[in-house]
Design goal:
alpha/beta; Rossmann fold; Serine Threonine Protein Phosphatase 5, Tetratricopeptide repeat; six-stranded mixed β-sheet; five-stranded parallel β-sheet; 28 helices; 57% helix; 9% strand; elongated
């Protein structure tokens, strides 16, 4: 006699397996029809197990509640007669007639996380049923925006924030039919029992996302938005992100074995388009990823399947440990601190030692080092040295994989840092062409377009990024920035305030609001908005200095300027140019810009469009700096 009999539709076996595995790990004896051996009278065996089980968990899905779900409905009726019936839903469904009066436990979108409160309530309900005790739990609706994240550390506040952000996106973006070749790759669930392995399961999803983004004709939702809907069922996630398909899965690994499951789900129906289980050694993870990506592309469209084979493995490695190190480096580097950036670089160096031909690793190291140099180089000499080394790694990535978008994006970013604008423009455009659905690459291209005088194209690309990564606050900030660069200050302010009002988590840039206010002549409001930025950051001090100048308080402005110089020295030379131009001191303004070019101050990328430089625009010394930068014409 088993503790638990699991009744389900055979086609849902892959979705039910995590529940069976979790209950067995809790110590329950579980029977489900996968255990029927060859030669057994399967109907007799099922009836005997159903009659003996102390609790019958009935898994209701679209298939189980439909016309082909007769066996599940019969088993549920037997269980209810014995008072051992416990219903679970894995889709948003209405239970068959006669079963709706019993509150079902919802596990929609659940992939095996035993810390999820929904699973815990189900487990406790099973124990109560086995012991013959009553149990009464409020089970949240699968689409209830207040439900708790399966990552308990995020708690209810994070779930509320996500619901607000998703709701705001739904209002801000006009309704549009999802393209059939559009997909969101949700983070794979880590079932290893070790939260320190989250970076690995998330890394597999990110690698698949990046690979699919290289396939022409396929729209792939960005990382931030995909992570925002990780706890929703596939149909809800597809609707929120306006995609036709969702790829989801799980990772369970031990020192000797690894199981990766993957499901490509039709976002409209919730039915699997393709699914697979992989039971391999940990070293086979890379082959599994490639197989998943190719099967997804082929399932979406036969024509994509051919193109995918060339694009998916680009820049990768066959050394599993090298890839694991790069996964960890990406997560570590996002912390942004000096120590985190340095640790990320060390991890990537270890990956490159394991595989000297790992192009993606070279590209990632170039980006990490360039970011480290921009934020933490102690002087101009160290900045130049670090950027030169970063360029060497970026060039190596391109040499190893000439069609790797990440490599060209890295070269472009370093060119931009060095104010080699023509090179930056060419490399950035090529990266977008090679990975048209990579929201991060397209996003970085937007600001460059505006600074090349292509403000209208920048705004078009900003709208496209919102479609690719609709729950990422940066997407909306790109759009406000593009409106500002178009000198559409009122439009930029109105849009920023609309986003902020409807979904605060989708706009986190008070400086952009302040910039628009300042150019609209609302100096005091701009000063207050700059005050909401990081205290004594160069952005705050620069903005408040300009706001004081606009308000006519020159003494206060000079005090702010002195503080900016004391804290940041020559690293904000470009900003001094704008401040002195607004003060009417043209000579000092031009000298500051000339020095900014000498030290390759990245702010100079905005010289052609920055309204703060308008008082000196057209002067011979100003034109000379622009000419030195070799900015391509629009």
């Amino acid at each position: 006699m088993s503790d638990v009999f699991v009744s389900y539709k055979a086609e849902d076996r892959r979705r039910v397996r995590p529940l069976v595995d979790a209950l067995r790990a809790e110590g329950f004896s579980v029977w489900w029809d996968e255990q029927i051996g060859g030669g057994c009278s399967w109907r007799h065996t099922i009836e005997a197990e159903l009659a003996a089980a102390r609790c019958v968990v009935v898994v209701w899905s679209k298939r189980a509640t439909g016309a082909s779900g007769d066996f599940v409905q019969d088993e549920a009726a037997h269980a209810r007669q014995r008072h051992v019936y416990l219903p679970v839903t894995i889709d948003k469904v209405h239970l068959p007639l006669g079963f709706g009066e019993t509150q079902a436990f919802s596990l929609a979108g659940w992939h095996g996380d035993t810390a999820d409160p929904r699973y815990i309530k189900l487990r406790d309900g099973i124990r109560a049923t086995i012991e013959g005790k009553p149990h009464r739990y409020r089970v949240p609706d699968p689409l209830d925006g207040s439900r708790v994240s399966r990552r308990t550390a995020l708690a209810s506040a994070a779930a509320t924030i996500t619901a607000l952000a998703i709701g705001g996106w739904a209002v801000l973006k006009p309704a549009k039919a999802a393209a059939s070749d559009s997909i969101a790759v949700l983070p794979f669930a880590n079932l290893s029992g070790d939260p320190r392995q989250n970076y690995f399961s998330d890394g597999i999803a990110e690698e698949l996302r990046n690979a699919l983004a290289r396939v022409a004709g396929l729209k792939v939702v960005g990382r931030i938005s995909s992570e925002a809907v990780r706890n929703f069922d596939a149909q809800t996630a597809a609707r929120k992100l306006r995609v036709a398909n969702v790829l989801t899965g799980t990772v369970r690994q031990s020192p000797s074995t690894m199981r990766i499951t993957a499901e490509l789900i039709d976002g409209r129906t919730g039915i699997d388009r393709w699914s697979a289980d992989y039971d391999r050694t940990p070293g086979d993870a890379i082959m599994i990823q490639t197989d998943i990506a190719q099967n997804v592309a082929t399932s979406l469209a036969e024509t994509l399947g051919i193109a995918a084979r060339a694009a998916i493995g680009l820049g990768g490695t066959s050394v599993a440990e090298a890839q694991r190190l790069v996964f960890e480096a990406r997560v570590t580097g996002r912390e942004g601190t000096r120590e985190a950036r340095q640790h990320a670089i060390d991890l990537i160096d270890s990956a490159i030692r394991l595989d000297p031909n790992y192009a993606d690793a070279y590209a990632q190291r170039a980006l990490e080092l360039n970011s480290y140099a921009d934020s933490f180089a102690k002087d101009a000499a160290e900045l130049a040295t670090d950027r030169a080394e970063a360029m060497r790694f970026a060039r190596k990535a391109v040499a190893l994989a000439p069609r790797l978008a990440a490599g060209h994006a890295a070269v472009g970013r370093i060119f931009q840092s060095n104010l080699e604008i023509a090179g930056a423009a060419n490399e950035s455009a090529l990266a977008v062409k090679l990975a048209p659905s990579n929201a991060e690459i397209v996003g970085h291209h937007i600001s460059l377009l505006a600074r090349l005088g292509k403000q209208a194209q920048a705004l078009e690309e900003a709208d496209r990024v919102i479609g690719l990564d609709p729950l990422n606050h940066l997407s909306y900030e790109y759009r406000v920035s593009a409106l500002y660069d178009n000198r559409r200050y009122q439009d930029g302010l109105d849009y920023a305030l609309k986003v902020q009002r409807r979904s605060p988590e989708l706009f986190r840039a008070p400086g952009l609001i302040a910039d628009c206010l300042l150019e609209l002549g609302r100096a005091q409001e701009a000063y207050d908005a700059y005050g909401r930025m990081s205290p004594d950051s160069w952005q705050q001090l620069n903005g408040q200095t300009l706001a004081l100048i606009a308000a006519g308080d020159r003494p206060a402005a000079m005090r702010k300027l002195s503080k900016l110089k004391r804290l940041y020295g020559e690293s904000t030379s470009y900003q001094y140019g704008g401040i002195y131009a607004q003060l009417g001191d043209h000579d000092r303004a031009l000298s500051a810009l000339e020095h900014a070019y000498t030290i390759r101050d990245g702010g100079l990328i905005s010289i052609r469009i920055d309204p703060r430089l308008d008082p000196i625009r057209g002067e011979p010394r100003f034109n000379a700096v622009v000419a030195e930068m070799n900015v391509p014409s629009a």
